[in-house]
Write a structure and sequence with these properties.
Layout (H helix, E strand, L loop, with lengths): L6 H20 L1 H14 L19 H6 L4 H11 L5 H7 L4 H8 L26 H28 L3 H13 L10 H13 L5 H9 L2 H6 L13 H11 L7 H10 L3 E3 L6 E3 L9 E3 L2 E3 L3 H10 L1 H15 L6 H13 L4 H9 L2 H4 L11 H46 L3 H19 L2
Antiparallel strand pairs: 1-2, 3-4
Length: 441
């Protein structure tokens, strides 16, 4: 069975569609719109002179690495590696060298979510729902549980102590595409999200093996339906085109032969957990990318990881995420070589990108368009800080009012003790009027 590949567009649209649904379901759009309205009220009026961005003088080599970050550099770095930093976060990076900033962004790391996602789902799955009303009710409940899952992930991105971990979780979710349209159970997507967060800054090779057998992936790319005598090529094609090698580095014969290697990967019908079924595996000889043998799925993934194209493709995707949509092969090549030599340590690839001249170049600042998720989370973080600032200001104002009123009341009491009716009435009038007049407007 063949499936037409959708390439990079498929991967990018999946995450964007998911977040559009998420925002509609959780009501975040209204909150974001309020924040944008507030921001627009503080925009400079027509004719107001704007302060232009000061261009940095280009520096090279060790001089660039030793250059201290100013506020603009720090804000740029934290925005690229996270979500809309506040002034306190920026201040922590001002004065650091680029290398120190990169080292600091790994910490604190949050491989686990800050809170458990409660989707209200059972660990066992019902397979036979025959009545129409029961089926409709189950579909409605699943939709609600997906809404809970999306809202939970937004809260994770808003409150994470490690923005880079959450950005990379989002990146890998986009890279290893799965979506609600073919995965009816949100708890499977929740499990995959935990997996991606755990390995977000870990090892790409280990993550590839784990994602390949992830129940959500086995459902989405029909891996669970792949069996001896009736191979399904969906996963075999996508793992080469979207996950490892990239387009143009494999043939249709490679896909057909690889599909046979992935047979035997299945799901438990009750728990939907991964199970190995030897009787469904094709243990015959296969020839993939010029290598022959009785490969199984894990051995085939190792063949893909051994290819230099895998390191180059993955590094290029990271470059598109953090630098620009126009990758520079000459600058990517050494980073990809280091990535491959490290046995796919993700931090090695990210360090190479973050320390590159292209990453810090003024011409590459502002060239990336934020994804819907980045835009909304950044807007919410900014609006939340605005609300917190206003709440603190109101609390300070209330405290000042109370302090003035207390002082005036003390004057009233002293006047009353002296038995002066005139002084008492005058002091009381001042105490009643002065706070409102002083703080009005």
């Amino acid at each position: 069975m063949k499936r037409q590949s959708t390439g990079r567009i498929h991967r990018r649209l999946a995450i964007r569609t998911a977040f559009v649904v998420m925002l509609t379901a959780t009501g975040v759009c209204a909150h974001a719109a309020d924040a944008l309205t507030t921001a627009s009220t503080h925009a400079p009026s027509p004719g107001t002179k704007r302060t232009s961005h000061v261009k940095h003088q280009p520096v090279i080599g060790t001089q660039a690495e030793a250059a201290m970050l100013d506020a603009d550099d720090a804000r740029f770095f934290l925005t690229r590696t996270g979500f809309a930093p506040d002034s306190a976060e920026v201040a922590q990076y001002v004065g650091l060298t680029r290398e120190q900033a990169v080292d600091k962004c790994w910490r604190p790391r949050a491989p686990k979510s800050s809170r458990r996602c409660q989707t209200g789902c059972s660990k066992r799955f019902r397979r036979a729902i025959r009545a129409d009303d029961e089926r409709r009710n189950e579909q409605r409940m699943r939709g609600q549980r997906y809404d809970v899952l999306r809202a939970w992930w937004v809260r994770e991105m808003l409150s994470t102590p490690s923005p880079l971990t959450e950005r990379m979780t989002l990146f890998w979710h986009n890279h290893f595409t799965s979506a609600q349209d073919k995965i009816p159970y949100p708890q499977l997507m929740a499990r995959q999200n935990v997996l991606l967060r755990r390995d977000a800054l870990g090892n790409f090779a280990e993550m590839l093996h784990d994602v390949a057998k992830d129940p959500a992936m086995l459902q989405y790319l029909d891996g669970a339906a792949n069996r001896k005598g009736k191979p399904n090529e969906n996963f075999a094609r996508e793992v080469m085109e979207l996950f490892t090698l990239g387009e143009g580095h494999y043939s249709q014969r490679d896909v057909s032969e690889a599909a046979r290697a992935y047979t035997g990967w299945s799901l438990d019908p009750d728990t939907l957990g991964y199970v190995w079924r030897a009787n469904l595996h094709d243990d015959g000889e296969k020839t993939v990318l010029g290598q022959s043998g009785a490969f199984d799925g894990d051995q085939l993934l190792e063949i893909l990881l051994a290819r230099p194209e895998t390191a180059t493709f993955t590094t290029t995707e990271l470059w598109r995420e953090f630098v620009s949509d126009t990758p520079d092969p000459e600058q990517i090549a050494p980073i990809a070589s280091q990535f491959r030599a490290s046995h796919y340590d993700i931090k090695v690839a990210l360090r190479g990108i973050f320390m590159s001249e292209a990453f810090w170049n003024d011409t590459d600042r502002g060239v990336l368009v934020k994804s819907p998720a980045e835009f909304v989370v950044g807007t919410l973080r900014a609006s939340t800080r605005l609300c917190e600032h206003r709440a603190v200001r109101r609390a300070d104002e209330h405290a000042r009012r109370e302090s003035v009123l207390s002082a005036e009341c003390e004057r009233v009491a002293r006047a009353a003790r002296r038995g002066s009716t005139v002084r008492y009435c005058s002091a009381w009038a001042q105490a009643a009027v002065r706070p409102s007049s002083r703080f009005s407007g």
